[in-house]
Write a structure and sequence with these properties.
Strand content: under 5%
Number of domains: 1
Oligomer: single chain
Order of helices and strands: HHHH
Shape: elongated
Distance between the termini: 83 Å
Radius of gyration: 22 Å
Mean pLDDT: 85
C-alpha cells in the first residue's frame, strides 16, 4: 500500500416509492410559486383573447354574449392550470405515502386555484 486511503464506495441512491412521493410532493409545492409568472402569461393571453372578442382592457368578457362567456370560462381554466397540476402531483405523492408535504401542496394549490375562480366570479357579478 502506498499510504493512500481508498475512497469510500458510495451506496446507490434510493429510488423507491418514498423518494418518488417526496419528489412529487415538492413538485406540488413548487407549482404554488409557478402561479406568479403564470399570472403574467394569463394576462397576456387574456389580452389577446379580449382583442379577438373585440373587448378593450378593463371590460368584462361576459358582456359580449355567448362568445364572451366561452372566452371567460376558457381563460378561467387557463389561469387554474398550475393549481390543477399541483393538486394532481400532491395526490400522486400522497398515494405513494408522502403525507405531510403532499397535504401542504394539495391545500396550497387548492387555495390558490379556488382564489382565482372566486376573484373572477366576484368581478363578473359586481
Amino acid at each position: 500500500m502506498s499510504g493512500r486511503l481508498r475512497p469510500e464506495v458510495s451506496q446507490p441512491v434510493a429510488t423507491g416509492p418514498a423518494v418518488r412521493g417526496r419528489r412529487l410532493a415538492v413538485a406540488s409545492l413548487v407549482m404554488v410559486t409557478v402561479n406568479v409568472p403564470w399570472l403574467v402569461v394569463s394576462w397576456l393571453v387574456g389580452t389577446a383573447v379580449m382583442a379577438l372578442v373585440g373587448a378593450r382592457e378593463g371590460q368584462l368578457l361576459s358582456g359580449y354574449g355567448a362568445g364572451g362567456w366561452v372566452a371567460w370560462v376558457l381563460m378561467l381554466a387557463f389561469m387554474a392550470v398550475p393549481s390543477i397540476i399541483g393538486v394532481i402531483l400532491g395526490v400522486r405523492a400522497r398515494r405513494l405515502g408522502e403525507r405531510r408535504l403532499s397535504t401542504a401542496g394539495i391545500v396550497a394549490n387548492t387555495f390558490v386555484g379556488v382564489g382565482w375562480v372566486v376573484l373572477s366570479v366576484v368581478q363578473v357579478i359586481s
